[in-house]
């Protein structure tokens, strides 16, 4: 295109002629600046017409709604974060199968498995999820030890007390294992002889052959007297924390089936109960009872109210007692009996607390006795015991 030279002193300044592209670019820039200035002039000089009250009210409502929506979203976000923190503190979602520290058998058990026949048409469930208590994460070292074994071989003999340790820490239910249990031959006696004559190798508890037959005090109710209160309507029962199964044995003599929840504390208690021809259930009172609603005609317990899961459930004694009582009420049928047998009240406050919780359910008090028992082995004042037979009312 050429250029124009201008001689100034001893220097030369050259002005290159503008090309077509550079001219177009400058034109675009000039147009942009002009438009921007015109828009700014319009903004500063424009005076909007005043809005009518109705339109202004509508706009205010819209603005407020937007602010409320923002606040609700922030609250939901905070709640999700709070729940996540609670789960982390409680041990939820910490048994991650991808963790390298978990034994391979535990990883296999925890993995989701597709349903063998495909998705369920009613529930729309497509996978099976294994049941392991979230509290197991608090005892991950014991759980790893429990699940460390050789598949298809004998279970480690040294871990016979591990299930009891885990359950006592709230790790319930335990995961299933793929190892073979140790079995020993045992002498089995026929019913009813086996009820009060047990093989010598299962001597894990002491048999009390007098209780419920010969009273030792006013708090001791006789079995036949309690059954008479039900008018012959007792067929199946549940004994919470029933130990060696003495209560179930007395009921078996009367053709009444009683399930005994017990733990292997100090010995093979479950095996001992089974050797008597009775039904032992390895279950702590902290766990939800694995029975349908309104199942039992009779629920019996002695010290089960104090074993109702204070440690396992991480709750204070009052809350643990309430959860336990509501579960007892759930499995007891209308008209059924709840037999609280010689419950030791550590103090008057505990007696009042238990009384208030029980009275909340509106049970009919067929028997209610508060008395003292002197303990010959303890040189302290006599202890207060509460015994009661309560009948559940019909509701709804």
Question: What does this 3D model show about the protein?
Answer:
The structure is a single chain. The chain is α/β, with parallel strands linked by helices. The chain has ten helices and eleven strands. Strands 7-6-5-8-9-11-10 form a seven-stranded mixed beta sheet. A two-stranded antiparallel sheet has the order 1-2. Helix 4 runs antiparallel to helix 5 (162-168) and helix 9 (317-331) packs parallel to helix 10 (348-359). The protein starts with a strand and ends in a 5-residue tail after the last strand. Mean pLDDT is 79; it is low at 1-22 and 309-313.
Can you summarize this structure?
The chain is α/β, with parallel strands linked by helices and 396 residues long. Helix content is 34%, strand content 18%. Helix 4 runs antiparallel to helix 5 and helix 9 (317-331) packs parallel to helix 10 (348-359).
